[in-house]
Every structure is written in structure tokens, then in C-alpha cells.
């Protein structure tokens, strides 16, 4: 199968919140997702205010594509953690530099979607917004390695 090129256009960008990357304490980080007024109207967010949480797809635009490789590495560079493949962790150095975050919806004001707990930096291009539905939560118990629990203990 031949790989096809996919072109995505941001729907908006993150305003406010953090401007520099550091890995922990995203709890209550507040930001606005400002949708592109040239491409969208308020009809695109009609009904969004009825949801408590959103899933945000964004681009890790500050990551230089030349620095991305698929070799196994220790999560967050932790020498105590065994190396894992790029698809076995959630770091920003990914082949397509895509980030996915679940965050709390605070309010919708026109084309401004106010959120908390979004782990994306101010200026980050947003590619999609989806409401989080309970029915998409895992139906079976969730398991993960101990290193993931330890590394994420202070994330939110």
C-alpha cells in the first residue's frame, strides 16, 4: 500500500495558558481555543456547552520534525524506565506530531471555547474538537505499566 499525503488545516489555536513546555502540573491550566472566524461560525459550536469534557486534537508545532525518530527511548528521558517504542508512550516526538488531550469545558463564548486541563501551549494549532462521551470510555479494566503511573502522578 502506498502512503498518501494528508493535509490538515487548523480549525483554530490555543490562546493563553502556558507558553512554555514543562511536563507536570497541568491541573487547572486554563486556556481558550479560538476558532478561525474566517472559516467557522458559531453554528459549529451549537450544543457544545452541554458537555463537561472535550477531546482536543492538536499539532505539536514546536517540535522540529527533523528531531522525530521512531527508535525506542525511555519515556521522558527517565534512565530508570526501560526504552519503549514511539507508539507506547504519549510524548510529543511522534511521526505526525499529533497531540490528543481530554480537558474540561468551562464555557463557550462565540468562537472562543474556554477549557481547563488542556496540555497544549498558547499558540498551538488546534486540528479538531470532539465532545467526550461516556460511551467511548473503556468498557473493560484499563491496565498500564507501573512506569506510566509513576511518570503521570504529577501530570494533572
Kindly list the characteristics that best describe this protein.
single chain; 156 residues; globular; Elongation Factor Tu (Ef-tu), domain 3; 6 strands
Explained architecture:
With 156 residues, the chain is mainly beta. The chain has a single domain (12-152), classed as Elongation Factor Tu (Ef-tu), domain 3. The protein has one helix and six strands; from the N terminus they run E-E-E-E-E-E-H. It has one helix at 146-152; strands at 12-15, 30-35, 53-59, 98-109, 112-116, 125-131. A six-stranded antiparallel β-barrel has the order 1-2-5-4-3-6. The protein is globular and about 45 Å long. The mean pLDDT is 88.
Quick overview:
With 156 residues, the protein is mainly β.
How much of the sequence lies in strands comes to 25-35%
Helical percentage = under 10%
**Named CATH architecture:** Beta Barrel
Rg calculated over all Cα atoms: 17 Å
CATH level-3 fold name: Elongation Factor Tu (Ef-tu), domain 3
Low-confidence sequence ranges: none
**The level-1 CATH class:** Mainly Beta
Order of helices and strands: EEEEEEH
Task: Sketch the major β-sheet.
Answer: 6 strands, antiparallel, barrel
- Put simply, the count of helices is 1
Considering the protein shown, what is the CATH homologous superfamily?
Answer: YaeB-like
State the total count of DSSP E strands: 6
What spatial order of strands do you see in the largest sheet?
1-2-5-4-3-6
Shape: globular
Overall pLDDT: 88
Domains counted in the coordinates: how many? 1
How would you classify the helix and strand content by structural class? Answer: mainly beta
The separation of the N and C termini measures 40 Å
Protein name: SAM-dependent methyltransferase
GO molecular function, one term: methyltransferase activity
Family: Belongs to the tRNA methyltransferase O family.
Keywords: Methyltransferase, S-adenosyl-L-methionine, Transferase
Amino acid at each position: 500500500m502506498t502512503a498518501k499525503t494528508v493535509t490538515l488545516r487548523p480549525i483554530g489555536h490555543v490562546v493563553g495558558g502556558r507558553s512554555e513546555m514543562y511536563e507536570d502540573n497541568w491541573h487547572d491550566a486554563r486556556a481558550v481555543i479560538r476558532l478561525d472566524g474566517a472559516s467557522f461560525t458559531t453554528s459549529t459550536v451549537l450544543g457544545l456547552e452541554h458537555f463537561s469534557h472535550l477531546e482536543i486534537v492538536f499539532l505539536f508545532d514546536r517540535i522540529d520534525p527533523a528531531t522525530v525518530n521512531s527508535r525506542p527511548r525511555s519515556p521522558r528521558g527517565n534512565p530508570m524506565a526501560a526504552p519503549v517504542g514511539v507508539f507506547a508512550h504519549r510524548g510529543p516526538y511522534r511521526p505526525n506530531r499529533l497531540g490528543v488531550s481530554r480537558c474540561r469545558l468551562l464555557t463557550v463564548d462565540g468562537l472562543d471555547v474556554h477549557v481547563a486541563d488542556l496540555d497544549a501551549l498558547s499558540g498551538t494549532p488546534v486540528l479538531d474538537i470532539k465532545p467526550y462521551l461516556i460511551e467511548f470510555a473503556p468498557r473493560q479494566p484499563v491496565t498500564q505499566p507501573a512506569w506510566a503511573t509513576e511518570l503521570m502522578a504529577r501530570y494533572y
